[in-house]
Amino acid sequence: MAPAAPVGVPAQYGIASGPIGKVRGTGICIVLTIITLGIYTLFWWYGTHKEMKDHTGIGVGGGIAALIAFFVSPVMAFITSSEVGDLYERAGIEPRPVSGLTGLWYFPGSLILVGPIVWFIKTNGALNAYWRAQGAQG
Fold first, then answer.
1. What ranges do the domains of the chain cover?
2. What are the CA-CA distances from residue 72 to residues 21, 51, 77, 133 (Å)?
3. Cα–chain-centroid distance for residue 138?
4. Is 16:129 a contact under the CB 8 Å cutoff?
5. What is the pLDDT of residue 16?
6. 8 Å CB contact between 49 and 61
7. How far apart are CA 97 and CA 84, in angstroms?
8. Measured between alpha carbons, how far is 63 from 27 in angstroms, rounded to an integer?
9. What SS3 string covers the chain?
10. Distance CA 55, CA 14 (A)
11. Is the dihedral of CA 44, 45, 46, 51 positive or negative?
12. Rounded to whole angstroms, how far apart are CA atoms 131 and 108?
């Protein structure tokens, strides 16, 4: 794993120096998605992308992510998995557990019904593991 970044080192140098995101339980997120009839996913996309951008200075950010998710959520599956994989790459952690190709579980994976669940377990799990490696509790 890459050494801790000095405070103030810009993300474009490959070292993330922003705040660490929070760990979101995969099971809880799935339950919240079911209870809210999918509305929670907009909050999840907003929160995770905001945290990734705050952490690295790179990415679409929360507002844009929520907007894209609202109109074309399948696109966000590819973007999210790609950005999570990029976190690992910038930290020098190989191999990347997810990439843009992981989005294929979401679409066309939704045609087998369980595809989006597999995508979410893989992507949220990788994001949680990254945050834990950075020192997040949970």
1. 25-133
2. 25, 21, 10, 31
3. 16
4. no
5. 72
6. yes
7. 9
8. 24
9. CCCCCCCCCCHHHCCCCCCCCCCCCHHHHHHHHHHCCCCHHHHHHHHHHHHHHHHHCCCCHHHHHHHHHHHHHHHHHHHHHHHHHHHHHHCCCCCCCCCHHHHHHCCCHHHHCCHHHHHHHHHHHHHHHHHHHCCCCC
10. 11
11. positive
12. 28
Placement of tokens 């929520």 in the chain: 66
pLDDT in tens, 78-89: 999 999 999 999
Q: In the numeric block, which tokens belong to residue 105?
A: 């579980």
- Taking only the tens place, the pLDDT of each residue in 22-45 is 999 999 999 999 999 999 999 999
Query: Does the global pTM surpass 0.90?
Result: no
Using CA atoms, how far apart are residues 119 and 135, in angstroms rounded to an integer?
A: 24
